[in-house]
Structure formats: C-alpha cells, structure tokens
Amino acid sequence: MDTKKLLAVVEVAQSKRFACQAPGCGRTVFRRLHVVSQDGALCVVGVGCYQKIFHGNVRDWPLYGSPNGRPLTEREYLLLVKDPARLIARFEAERAAGERTAVAPRSRRPVQPRAQIPRPPSEARRRFGAQAEREVEAKYGLRSALKGWRSLVDLRIRELADRAAAEGR
Is 0.85 topped by the overall pTM? Predict the structure, then answer.
C-alpha cells in the first residue's frame, strides 16, 4: 500500500539551499520545501517535484504548520539536514503543547471597571455645549464630534457648569 502524507512545508535561507530528494532531481531549493512521508520514509522535495511525484496541490494543508511555509531556525535547519524525523517530532511536540494551552482553562482576571464620565445634564449641555466644543477643538486641533473626543467635551461642559454654579450664575 502506497501511503503518502504531507507533514510540513518549510523554508530555509537562500544561502542554505537544500537538495531536493526526489528520485532523479537533486535541484537545490530554499523556499517551500515539502516534507513528505511515503511508506514510513521521510523525503524532502521542492514544490515542483511535490506536484509531479505526489500529485499534490501547492495549497495542500500539511499535518504541521501551514501551506505558506514555516521559516526554519538554524537549529531546525540542522535537524532537517541530519535527521528530518527529529524535526517532525519537534513539530509534533509544538503542536501538542499548543493544543494543551488551548484546552487549559484560562485564569480569569477580575474585570476592571472602566472610568465613565457621566453625561452632563441636558440643561448644562444646552447652555455650555457650544463653548466646550470650541475650546476642546482649539486645544487639541481636532473635531470634537470625533469618536473618543466626546468625553472631553462632556468633561469641559461639567467644568463650565460647576464654575458657573460656584459663581452663582
């Protein structure tokens, strides 16, 4: 039985080109190396040989990683050259660790209440709204109606209303 499985798509630096292991190929590749398991043996081939020999689509989803190609670190590159099975075992361990953290319950932090500036009374808005908008726009150089700036206008309305109340107006 001929079983073929795409395990990973990896990428190495251009200066560290890798020889395609497809029968009769030997071309050097650095981008989109396909690590394939065929009848239990691992084989690292370029994208062209992967399509020809394994009748695969370049967008096939590998068992580890994504079809876009994972850039390898220096240590991972050495594993690919010397022992691809250990590299795949490392990918498997990373995937298992990722699944464990995804399943593990997350510690909940207490939700911090957001600071809220209560809207000024409608009388104060009517009386001081235009003045507060002009002052905020002059101070910050932005339109006071923009999202996020409305609270500054409301704060300024409150300040003007409080000052007027203290002065007895």
Answer: no
